[in-house]
Design a protein that fits this description.
By secondary structure, the chain is an alpha/beta fold. The chain has helices at 2-8, 28-38, 57-62, 96-105, 121-132, 144-149, 155-176, 206-212, 216-224, 228-234, 237-248, and strands at residues 15-22, 69-77, 80-88, 108-114, 136-142, 193-197, 202-204. The protein is 43% helix and 19% strand.
Length: 256
């Protein structure tokens, strides 16, 4: 793996420097653990419990990320390997300085939003900082399991919830973005929006669902029939998310 990383470091077009940022407790450290597990960097059994990027004792004790932590992964898309350098940023407003430093070191960010809570104050803070540093965002709507198990939403209502979150994110970007280079928008149609459950290690994008023939009803059925592990095998979180990263976030050359 080290040799592979060293080789890819010499090919800027096949590098993505990204951050993971969200409001506190929206699940980004568990999300990061499962990306690492999928990329073969840690045991899948430990993902979500190991808290690899929460390496300080006080972070693990408090269940939050205090310092920004970075890791490297290799992901293959359409037969080509890419090096993804990922920084897991603090979600608590008290540690905003680390978010700022992380955003300056990357070219794009995965913004996590809790499917139940939606946009929150720190979501807006990290988005604002990303745009200030010209870091392109993509969106992952997390904790979809809560929509199914807690709110018991039908497929149509789940989709309405997603549309509402996406509209709010795009509206916020449009409101605060003054630079023409950061007039970005995210959409389900182009694949810059994914959704899933980090704790259960599955993810979806529209393109992935169409390719695999998976419907919203299939997702709900997986929970009702206690087949969530099978769902995670069909739609592994890392496969969906890292492919979106490669396709939608810039490499260091084009980001300049």
């Amino acid at each position: 793996m080290i040799e592979k990383v060293m080789k890819l470091m010499l090919i800027p077009e096949q590098i993505r420097n990204i951050s993971v940022s969200a409001h506190i407790d929206h699940g980004k450290t568990t999300f990061t653990d499962n990306l690492l597990a999928g990329a073969g960097m840690m045991s899948e059994e430990l993902a979500g419990h190991q808290l690899v990027t929460d390496f300080r004792a006080d972070e693990q004790a408090r269940g939050i990320t205090i310092d920004a932590a970075n890791v490297s992964m290799v992901h293959q898309v359409e037969g080509k390997e890419f090096l993804i350098n990922l920084i897991d940023t603090p979600g608590h407003v008290d540690f905003g300085g680390d978010v700022t430093r992380a955003m300056r070191a990357v070219d794009g960010t995965i913004v996590l939003v809790d499917a139940v809570e939606g946009m929150m104050p720190q979501t807006e803070t990290v988005l604002r900082q990303a745009l200030k540093e010209k870091d392109k965002p993509i969106l992952f709507i997390n904790k979809v399991d809560r929509l199914i198990k807690e709110l018991k939403l039908a497929p149509e209502k789940m989709q309405e919830r997603f549309v509402n979150i996406i509209m709010k994110v795009n509206k916020f970007i449009a409101q605060i973005s003054t630079d023409p280079d950061t007039k970005w928008s995210i959409s389900v149609q182009d694949g810059s929006v994914c959704f899933g459950s980090a704790i259960h290690n599955w993810g979806m994008s529209l393109d992935f669902m169409q390719k695999k023939g998976i419907s919203f009803k299939d997702i709900i059925d997986a929970y009702e029939k206690n087949e969530v592990k099978e769902l995670a095998k069909k739609a592994p979180l890392h496969e969906v998310v890292l492919t979106a990263v490669v396709k939608h976030l810039p490499n260091p050359v084009t980001a300049q």
